[in-house]
Automatic annotation (TrEMBL):
Residues 207-319 form the RNA 3'-terminal phosphate cyclase insert domain. PANTHER family: RNA 3' TERMINAL PHOSPHATE CYCLASE, RNA 3'-TERMINAL PHOSPHATE CYCLASE-LIKE PROTEIN. It comes from Lophium mytilinum. It holds the Pfam family RTC_insert. Its main location: nucleus. This is RNA 3'-terminal phosphate cyclase. The lineage of its organism: Eukaryota, Fungi, Dikarya, Ascomycota, Pezizomycotina. Belongs to the RNA 3'-terminal cyclase family. Type 2 subfamily. Residues 11-343 form the RNA 3'-terminal phosphate cyclase domain.
Length: 403
C-alpha cells in the first residue's frame, strides 16, 4: 500500500513484536521506525539473520516498499508498498517465488508462514512461495515455533471463518528437523494462497462446543519408523480415555542431504535435519481447533514415548485453557478481525490467553496503527472465558480495489 511522503513513521523501540509490527505496517500502509534493536548486546547486535530474511521476503512480495537499515543494523525505517504476491515480473519464475533460508537459521518455517498467510488474502495476485535452503526447518523448534503441519491443519482452516477458503494449500515437499545446535534443516515447503478478498467477513465465534475428534501426524526424518509407532502409542494411551475418535497418521522420510564441504572428498554428502515429532489437533462440534506440537530436541536423548505423552498433555492443557481459539492461532484471528469490514466482531477466548503478554502487546500495537480498542466482557453462563469485541478498521485490499 502506498503512503504519502509527509506521513511520519510510527516509532517503536526494541525487537519485541517485530513481525506483528511489520505485518500491520504492510496491511495499513503506515511507515514505521524501529530503533535500538539489541543495541546493548555484545555478540548479536542488531537484527538477527532470520529477521533480515523476513525483510527480504517482504520486499519480494510487495512493490514499492522501502527498507532502510543503518550501518549498525540496530535501526530500521520501513515504508510499505503494495502487496503484489507472486505477480509475474516481480522476481518470480513461472508465478512461483523461491525464498531461501540460510544455514544458520534457528527459527522454524512457520516463523515466515504465519505472517505471510496474514498478508496473502490482501494481495493483488495469488501468493505462491517455496521456502527452501539449508535453514528451512519444517518441524517444531526449541525456539517455540510450531511445525508446518500445525500451520496446515490448525491455522489455515481458520481462514474459512472469514470467507477465505478457496485455493489454499500448504505442501511439505521435504521434511526436516532442527540440525546440530538447533540450526538448519534443509527442508522444503510450498505455500499456495490463491483466494484474495476485498474485506474479510465479520466473525462471531462464541460457542467452543465439545471436542468430537482428535487428528494428528507423527513424523520421523532420517530415523527408524518405529519412533512414530512409539509416539502414537504413548499419545493414544492418554487420549483414548477422553476421546474415542482419535486417529494419528505416520509419515517417515529420509533425511535431507547437503554437501559435506570436505575438501578431501568434494562429492561427499552429509545428513541434516534428523529427528522426530508429533502434532495433535482437536476439533470441536462447532469447528473450533486446538493444537499441540512437540519435536525431539536437537541434542537428542529424549525417547519417543516421552515426546508423545508430552504432546498429548499439552493438547489437554490447550483445550482446558478454554475459548474458541488456541494461543498459537489467536494473533491470526485477532488481526483478521481488526482488518474487517467495519462491523463489530466477537470472539470468545480463554482468560489466560487474553492475559498473555503476546496478546496484550498485539492489542497495543493495533491501537498504534489506528485500529479500534477492544471491548472485553465475561462470557457468562458459568464460564471463565472472555468475549473480545473488535470493530474492523475496513482497510481492505487496495490491490483488489485498483483491479
Amino acid at each position: 500500500m502506498s503512503t504519502g511522503p509527509s506521513q511520519p513513521p510510527i516509532r517503536f523501540t526494541g525487537c519485541k513484536s517485530l513481525i506483528n509490527r511489520l505485518v500491520l505496517s504492510t496491511l495499513t500502509g503506515r511507515p514505521i521506525r524501529i530503533s535500538q534493536v539489541r543495541s546493548t548486546s555484545i555478540s548479536s547486535t542488531g537484527f538477527a539473520p532470520h529477521e533480515v530474511s523476513f525483510l527480504r521476503l517482504l520486499d519480494s512480495i510487495t512493490n514499492g516498499s522501502s527498507i532502510d537499515l543503518d550501518y549498525t543494523g540496530t535501526t530500521l525505517v520501513y515504508r510499505p508498498g503494495l502487496i503484489t504476491g507472486s505477480a509475474p515480473g516481480l522476481g518470480t519464475a513461472g508465478g512461483v517465488l523461491r525464498h531461501e533460508l540460510e544455514a544458520g537459521c534457528t527459527r522454524g518455517v512457520s516463523y515466515f508462514l504465519l505472517p505471510l498467510c496474514l498478508l496473502a488474502p490482501f494481495s493483488k495476485a495469488p501468493v505462491n512461495v517455496i521456502f527452501t535452503g539449508a535453514g528451512c526447518i519444517t518441524s517444531a523448534t526449541p525456539t517455540g515455533d510450531i511445525s508446518a503441519d500445525a500451520v496446515r491443519t490448525a491455522i489455515l482452516p481458520l481462514f474459512a471463518q472469514f470467507g477465505v477458503e478457496r485455493n489454499i494449500e500448504l505442501r511439505i515437499l521435504k521434511r526436516s528437523c532442527p540440525g546440530p545446535g538447533g540450526k538448519g534443516g534443509a527442508g522444503e515447503v510450498q505455500l499456495i494462497f490463491g483466494h484474495q478478498v476485498r474485506l474479510p467477513k465479520t466473525l462471531h465465534l462464541m460457542n467452543p462446543g465439545r471436542v468430537k475428534k482428535i487428528r494428528g501426524v507423527a513424523y520421523a526424518t532420517g530415523v527408524a519408523a518405529a519412533n512414530n509407532a512409539r509416539m502414537i502409542e504413548s499419545a493414544r494411551g492418554v487420549l483414548n480415555e477422553l476421546c474415542k475418535d482419535t486417529f494419528i497418521a505416520s509419515d517417515v522420510s529420509p533425511a535431507p542431504l547437503l554437501p559435506s564441504q570436505d575438501r578431501s572428498n568434494p562429492g561427499a554428502k552429509r545428513k541434516l535435519g534428523i529427528g522426530f515429532g508429533i502434532l495433535l489437533v482437536a476439533e470441536t462440534s462447532t469447528g473450533c481447533l486446538y493444537s499441540a506440537d512437540v519435536g525431539s530436541p536437537p541434542e537428542g536423548g529424549e525417547p519417543p514415548e516421552s515426546v508423545g505423552r508430552q504432546c498429548a498433555f499439552q493438547l489437554l492443557e490447550t483445550v482446558a485453557a478454554g475459548g474458541c481459539v488456541s494461543k498459537v492461532a489467536a494473533p491470526t484471528m485477532l488481526m483478521l478481525m481488526a482488518m474487517g469490514d467495519g462491523d463489530v466482531g466477537r470472539l470468545q477466548m480463554g482468560r489466560n490467553v487474553v492475559g498473555s503478554e503476546e496478546i496484550i502487546g498485539l492489542g497495543r500495537d493495533l491501537r498504534e496503527f489506528g485500529c479500534s480498542a477492544w471491548g472485553l466482557r465475561d462470557a457468562g453462563g458459568g464460564s471463565e472465558d472472555i468475549v473480545v469485541s473488535i470493530v474492523g478498521r475496513g482497510v481492505g485490499n487496495v490491490g483488489r480495489k485498483i483491479a
